[in-house]
Amino acid sequence: MLSKTSKQPTVFASRLAGILALVALLGLFVFPTATIARNFSGAGTLWLFPRGIMDLSGFPPEKIPDLALAGTLNWVLAVSLLVTVIAAWRRQSWLWMAGLLSLLLGLVCAWAFTHNLGLLSQELLANNVPKRRIPYLTGGINMGLLFPVLSGLTALVCGLTASPVWMQRFERFRGILIPFVSILLSIVVGSIVVLLVQAVPADPSIKLDFAHQWYGKLDLLWFVYTTLFAPLTNINDLFQSLMLATPLIFTGLAVAFAFRTGLFNIGAPGQLTMGAIFAMLVGVYVPLPAWLLVPLGVLAAALGGAFWGFIPGVLKARFGSSEVINTIMLNYVAAGIFVLMLGSDKLPFFGKEYPLPFKSPGFEAKSYPLQEGARLQPLSSLLGLDQSGAALSWSPLIGIILFTLLFLLVRHRYRALLAGTAGVVVSVLLWSTLKIPLDNTVGSHLNTSFFIALVCAWLFAIVMWRTTTGYELRAVGLSPKAAEYGGINVSRNTVLAMTIAGGLAGLCGTHYVMGGALDEYVLKQSLPTNVGFDGITIALLGQNTPLGVVVSSILFGVLDTGGLYVDQRLDALNRDIVTLLKALIVLFIAAQGFLSRKITSPPPAVLVKDLEKKEGQA
Amino acid sequence: MNWETFLTTAFLGSIIRSIAPLLLAALGGLFSERSGIVNIALEGIIIFGALAGAVTTQLLDASLGSAAPWVGWIAGALVGGLVAWIHAVISIKYRADQVISGTAINLLAVGVPGIVLGFLYQSTTESKQVEHALPQWGLTEELTFSPPVYFAFLMVLITWYVLYKTPYGLRIRATGEHPKAAASMGVNVYRIRYTAVIISGMLAGTAGVFLSIGNLNAYTKNMSAGIGFIALAALIFGKWTPVGVLLSTVLFGFFRALATQLGGSNLLPSSLVDMMPYVLTIIVLAFTGKSVGPRAVGKPYEG
């Protein structure tokens, strides 16, 4: 209890803050500080503090931005980091102030640099240079500035752990500790792979001595990871990312739902195939008006998947055969049914041939196109973004972030209401100020299915934590024997869980077939069933919570989109680096992020409080 | 095509060739699961083995000549063992859910080959063809097989002997049934499980080697085609015994060969026949019932 009474940050927290601050301090001098410009193949012109400019591209920009202010700030930042190191070393209660100072200095320094780059770009724009020819647009901060910011943030958080009130607030985030550490670890391992596989991108005219290699390698890492996350900053790429995220939300929820009931659903690939087939059947062949056809199609997709989840559910409940093997087998069966239906328009049977009506004529295995009425609208056209002169406001994003922060940090009866109101008010107030006109129109297959996915996530939460059914499902998941003893029908809940899980995966059909995510409103051979396996990763990363699933899906959507750019811009690396990162995340989550149990699941705070009280009385 | 096509020695040969990798992987699974560790990672390990076998052979082709594939085989088995070791560390040392850990390995097997192939051959889907694949030994022209096939059938005997006639086998079985009891008799549960999982990885790696340089002469994407999973099913169907595994892999191998043979015929759509082993697995599993497997399988041991 020493740490509680003396108001010192905990040993672990201060050690963490200290090490990171030390790394950041050294990093200021040995990492590239910022990138001034970068050519298409990834070679950059780097600013090294305090050494000056190093060019790897062979064509440095004509003008170098003014580095005086940023340079001075960097020296101040170095001092601030040194102070943080000392504060952490001595476990001072003012560690958080040192952290805050480094954080602010880091941000101001980054701002100063980007501001100067922006000035140069504007100068060129004023001279009518086309935008894509301006080298400064591809510049920005680099690892040298990122680490101080991160270190400042960590020191701030770690320093605040000295206060019990803040400690309690941070408790709420303990759930994201394992996913967070796993992502970090996979980034570290991924970095090793990147370094092994990819040579430093540099112009052949440059002789790569040790310094060039060192800074080039570090810049390469920075380049790869920023490229992977770059879709967050571009509206078209963001739409693309959300489009790729939509099916992941469905399959992630499908795996998570079964997980909550103690079942391992590896069958999402098959379930989504069946959902897509059912959606296609309704969309192509059922003659109904649009207002009936769309809901019927959505229902059909869910039913198709649900049917494919029901089978292993029944087999498990009735015969006790493992759902793991059965769902895997059903994946292959679903793939077989798909090929049977769409692979050929004839069905050979003992020497005779029967016609099959599903495959549209042509070389590719695909169905006939869906009727107009069965199609889901693209979101870009719903928002009016596919016209020229369109603008988008990002104030709702600020609103959502504000809502989440308030919701998690405030402890009050009406915190949901308070946070909600604050979020709405802020996004309305900022609506017109944060409006950004779009350079080009947004065209994407992101469609209404995205909202269906969000609604599913919301329903998941309601059913799982607000209904008796959800209570029973979770009880079976925690301990089937105890649930049975408590009068819960385990078999029924097993079947129910697998059926609902299947239905969720099946809803992918609304995205791929009805939403036209396969580039056409048809069911095609290119149906990416691998998304079903990604659902496992998503569910694990999201810790089987609906919010976690949505957030991780969007993260994966972004990485998948960014992976395409890595593929394009670097010669040896391809998008499989993203697949590797995903696999590593699962591996590390399986090992609980290699964290000790003391950190991941300490005794509940309530219990600790009670214990303290008892100690006080005694 | 008519029924006589199926009474040829060529068809028999193709059945045996489809049994071999299944058998190797299933026997691998047998070691692992008898020691209490679910090895759903077999599928991924096969891919790693196939990749390592093909790449090593291809790289050593020039310097070693016809000895290269043998080194490739060893490399494939070792890499298989190494990958299995990762699975073992995560699920034994860190007490992870074994199915999740195995799934992670399978996901790794989706990503890593692309990176390795991209690095070595600037391709994401296949390796360069090897000049010297494993030799083909046989009696008649149609019944020739590469050494891993003979090894697979020999392994049934060896597995049976090791499992039932040696102290090590007894320890494996004891660890899988009741690790605490085994530990109280002085058995090092961790060591037994580690070795069993690594053996299982080496066998699955050999299955992969057979696919890439025993049956073909290059690594291609998705060449495992679910063999690892079917091997697991065969393991359950065979009730976790070497002979049972042999019999069930014969059944599954027959269907796989049949599907290949029927592709392009007008008897049945090949996709329908492709599905058969999987449907068969589901039906069979329903009637095999539960709890015939090692009692402690899937449960992390805390000692």
TrEMBL record, chain A:
Compartments where found: Cell membrane
Gene source species: Deinococcus roseus
Q: Does the keyword Membrane apply?
A: yes
A Pfam family the protein falls into: BPD_transp_2
Its main subcellular localisation, reduced to a broad class, is: membrane
The protein here is known as: ABC transporter permease
Transmembrane region(s)? 67-87, 94-114, 134-163, 175-200, 238-259, 266-286, 292-311, 323-343, 391-409, 416-434, 446-465, 495-514, 578-595
Does the keyword section mention Transmembrane helix?
A: yes
How this chain sits in the membrane, per its record, is:
Multi-pass membrane protein
**What does the UniProt keyword field contain?**
Cell membrane, Membrane, Transmembrane, Transmembrane helix
Automatic annotation (TrEMBL), chain B:
Q: Cellular location of this protein?
A: Cell membrane
Q: Say if the entry is tagged with keyword Transmembrane.
A: yes
Check the record and name the InterPro entries matching this protein: ABC_BtuC-like, ABC_transp_permease
How the protein sits in the membrane? Answer: Multi-pass membrane protein
Q: Does the keyword Membrane apply?
A: yes
What CDD domains does the record tag this protein with? TM_PBP1_transp_TpRbsC_like
The transmembrane residues are 6-30, 37-58, 70-92, 104-123, 143-163, 194-213, 225-255, 267-287
> Which terms are listed as keywords in the entry?
Cell membrane, Membrane, Transmembrane, Transmembrane helix
Protein's recorded name = ABC transporter permease
